Structure to design on (221 residues):
């Protein structure tokens, strides 16, 4: 995704469609960490907004060693011409498999409210494959961008945190924000919202108002 973001910026610049001094990127949940990572690497980004910050998406520690070992064996197998190995996203009871740390640490009540994305995809797209390659899990395990966040400086940054985020603790998101050294930065708590219901019946004018004000300030338009 980071490579894709860089490609999009180049495409927009080459096409002359945007002011190259006013390119901002915006990330939502998983992509929020990728947005900060992209801003750290590429100073063509003049502002970044991370909404519902997810600084990593690491594997559940009890499962990590097995998954990584299987990924290494799978890579060797593929080099020998064999098809990739897949992991199902649901167990035999139709429940989400909790291979990721954030999911595994959720309470039973929180897990009950997980969005039924896989179930909905299977219902609406009969050809949907409810499996993920083990290499995808392996790449998740290796993705730890937090050590790059300091390099976002001096790019202006805004972080919005759901007040009741049940996936990434709000206090952890706040500590990450406080660690950023960008001279122009803004932090906003989105009241009454969690990770799972962040956009449910949301007033977009209200949600985006602060973000637009931030961009107007740092982009000077």
């Amino acid at each position: 995704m980071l490579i894709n973001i860089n490609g999009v910026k180049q495409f927009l610049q080459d096409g002359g469609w945007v002011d190259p001094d006013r390119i901002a990127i915006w990330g939502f949940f998983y992509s929020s960490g990728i947005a900060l990572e992209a801003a750290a690497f590429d100073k063509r980004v003049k502002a970044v907004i991370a909404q519902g910050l997810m600084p990593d998406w690491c594997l559940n520690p009890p499962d990590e060693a097995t998954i990584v070992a299987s990924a290494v064996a799978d890579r060797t197998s593929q080099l020998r011409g064999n098809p990739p190995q897949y992991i199902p996203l649901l167990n035999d009871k139709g429940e989400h498999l909790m291979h990721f740390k954030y999911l595994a640490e959720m309470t039973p009540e929180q897990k009950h409210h997980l969005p039924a994305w896989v179930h909905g995809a299977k219902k609406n797209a009969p050809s949907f494959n409810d499996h993920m390659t083990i290499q995808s899990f392996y790449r998740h395990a290796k993705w730890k961008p937090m050590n790059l966040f300091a390099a976002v400086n001096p790019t202006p940054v805004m972080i919005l945190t759901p007040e009741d985020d049940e996936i990434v603790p709000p206090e952890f998101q706040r500590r990450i924000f406080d660690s950023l050294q960008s001279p122009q930065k803004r932090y906003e708590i989105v009241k009454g919202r969690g990770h799972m219901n962040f956009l449910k019946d949301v007033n977009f004018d209200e949600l985006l108002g602060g973000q637009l004000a931030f961009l107007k300030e740092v982009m000077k338009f």
